[in-house]
Amino acid sequence: VPTHVKSICCIGAGYVGGPTCSVIALKCPHIKVTIVDINPVRIAAWNSDVLPVYEPGLDEVVRECRGRNLFFSTDVDAAIKEADLIFVSVNTPTKTSGVGKGFAADLHYVEASTRRIASVATSSKIIVEKSTVPCRTAASMRTILESNSTFAADGTQISFQILSNPEFLAEGTAIRDLFAPDRVLIGSLDTQQGKAAANALSEVYENWVDRSKVYQTGLWSSELSKLAANALLAQRISSINSLAAICEATGANVDEVAHACGLDGRIGNKFLKASVGFGGSCFQKDILNLVYLSESLGLKEVSDYWHQVIKMNEYSKERFARKVVSTLFNTITFKKIAVLGFAFKKDTGDTREAAAITLCKYFRQERAFIAIYDPKVTTNQIMLDLTEPGVVDDAEAVRKQVRIATSMQDACDDAEAVIICTEWDEFKNASKQEWEAIYKAMKKPSFLFDGRGIVDTKMLREVGFKVHAVGKGP
Ligand code: NAD
Ligand code: UGA
């Protein structure tokens, strides 16, 4: 197994594989990095001027190294053969059928990649789990690789070392997170070969990350730490959102409560922003995965404990939607609702599990008309997200009820209520004059529901809006 890495292949050119390996190429000009995917449209986009992932700073990174030591390709086999080290960075969504449906991770993309490596490799390699996977997935990967490994040209048996190297970047700040990670976690088997492989990967990161930030652990701890970190982060949001409900009922202000608690060094002030509910491709999926893991291990109380984090998140979204309906005199049927923001957070075009999707579906069931504006999400993506797969006439029904607007003002024209779903700076920094123009064009009374706690409620009340902000009493 290689002890120094000269060539890297990344299987999976998604939100993680693309940015992560582009940064490795930037920081390690002596390493050839090839990012491969079975989706030719995605690879074509990575090779074009409009990258398939929107991330501040990503364009610059790709522009500097693409064609130098960074390549995007659909030739998976060639890249596997050439590499000393292979990142497996494919999707691991929640299973939608079969055993563990709705909870367990669907590992068939990971397994397909592993089998591909086993069948085409002609030399020994380090295989790195970058995808978020259930604890002990590396053991299955090793069994597949060992059972299928062949012989190199010189007759020696090919061998593989498997490492776990979970990714902790957050979307919208991916490049910043990759340039200066809080830590790089590398899990390996506690053997001489395992440690040597971990050191080889560490050496790659040490081109820009201080060695003190690289934390080496056992394989299983590393795999579990990724699920644990996401569960702990999401748990903080559900905790503050549960307190937001109490704030609204009592007149306390959730921002003040969060600030007061966060001043305690043991608690800290990060990840305590109350919201309409968390979204994103991973928090829910990874906690469901942890719930399934705990249950499979016979740990029902543990499983129930983490499941509550998801249930609280569902409750937060529903509570907010109900508040809209009850405030608008208990009916929004045929009323026009403006939805500002569709991405699951600011500075990304990603809509996976976005709270806006749940809210819009709820408003549609109440037969409201919805106008949606998001600075980065495409019309196609919004329509796709609001269409139930398998419902034939659903797309047509969505088109009748939903309009995609081109600006805040456009979305709000003639609306009875504005709903802020994403904390885009454009909404946060809108001036009093802009809100006055919006107010003027709306039906009266004009309601504003701030699902992100970003607008100046005092100023908006001065303008004339009837404002409801999450976690803030009347
Ligand atoms: P993604 O869906 O954006 O990308 C995955 C890519 O893998 C897709 O383009 C798909 O076509 C490709 N792929 C699937 N099977 C393949 C195969 N056999 N050969 C080649 N390509 C294949 O997913 P993502 O958001 O990049 O997430 C990838 C993993 O990283 C997941 O396990 C996720 O949990 C984890 N993760 C995601 C984030 C995030 O912010 N999105 C952060 C940390 C960890
Ligand atoms: C999250 C983690 O932060 C990353 O460390 C992790 O690598 C990643 O999941 C992953 O495994 O995919 P991400 O989902 O991209 O990153 O974005 P976050 O910043 O964590 O936000 C997630 C959701 O929580 C968003 O909808 C955000 O608006 C919401 N949130 C966040 C709040 O409602 N309140 C907060 O205080 C923070």
Please, could you describe this protein's structure?
The protein has helices at about 15-25, 40-45, 60-65, 75-80, 110-120, 135-150, 175-180, 190-205, 220-250, 255-260, 285-295, 300-325, 355-365, 380-385, 395-400, 410, 425-430, 430-440, 455-465; strands spanning about 5-10, 30-35, 70-75, 85-90, 125-130, 160-165, 185-190, 215-220, 335-340, 370-375, 400-405, 415-420, 445-450, 465-470. The protein starts with 6 loop residues before the first strand and ends in a 5-residue tail after the last strand. The protein is an alpha/beta fold. The model has no long low-confidence stretch (mean pLDDT about 95). The strands form three sheets. It has a six-stranded parallel sheet with strand order 3-2-1-4-5-6, with helices on both faces. A six-stranded parallel sheet has the order 11-10-9-12-13-14, with helices on both faces. The protein binds nicotinamide-adenine-dinucleotide and uridine-5'-diphosphate-glucuronic acid. Nicotinamide-adenine-dinucleotide (NAD) binds next to helix 5. It comes from Kalmanozyma brasiliensis (strain GHG001). Belongs to the UDP-glucose/GDP-mannose dehydrogenase family. GO terms for molecular function: NAD binding; UDP-glucose 6-dehydrogenase activity. Its EC number is 1.1.1.22.
